Amino acid sequence: MLSARIAAYALTGLLLGALTTTVSVGLALPLLSDQPGPDLTSADVGAVVAGNLVAFVLSTILGAALGALIRSPVLGVVVLLVVNFAVVPLLSGVWEAGVNLTPFGAAGILSRMTHHTTLSVVSAGWVLAAWTVAVTLVAVVVERRRDLA
Fold first, then answer.
1. How many other β-carbons are positioned within 10 Å of the β-carbon of residue 34?
2. Could you tell me the maximum CA-CA distance found in the chain, to the nearest angstrom?
3. ∠ CA 143-146-149, rounded to 5°
4. How far apart are CA 123 and CA 110, in angstroms?
5. In whole angstroms, what is the distance from residue 99 CA to residue 146 CA?
6. Which residues contact 54 (CB under 8 A, 6 or more apart)?
7. pLDDT tens, 82-121?
8. pTM of the prediction?
9. Separation between Cα atoms, residue 139 and residue 90, nearest integer Å
């Protein structure tokens, strides 16, 4: 059952990611065309779009798996807010490169929101994929145990 929900969330994440990325690129390109500096190539835009879509899908799957683990929407939101606004900044103060190894940092690199980082875009994709797979596997095991209980 969890697999079907995760697949549905992944498809929804892909569709919403495609919609929001299309709108963002459609609005940004005309605004950026008059700005000084190097022009964006279609390869640049394509790389950003691809990174955003991968980040959307992996983050959506990760969120669905965390939702299956936590089960309370309110607690889930509180946990993610505390991690994003307290734990990640504390980690950046202690070990700045360590933030790139969190799902938040990896998604930022993957979608090109973070520059001057120790991780490449491909490595960030692997980091986010590893988090997603690990949390999803834990969620599958926990849900199977709940079903047996």
1. 6
2. 63
3. 155
4. 9
5. 33
6. 110, 125, 128
7. 998 999 899 988 988 888 999 999 999 999 888 778 889 9
8. 0.88
9. 27
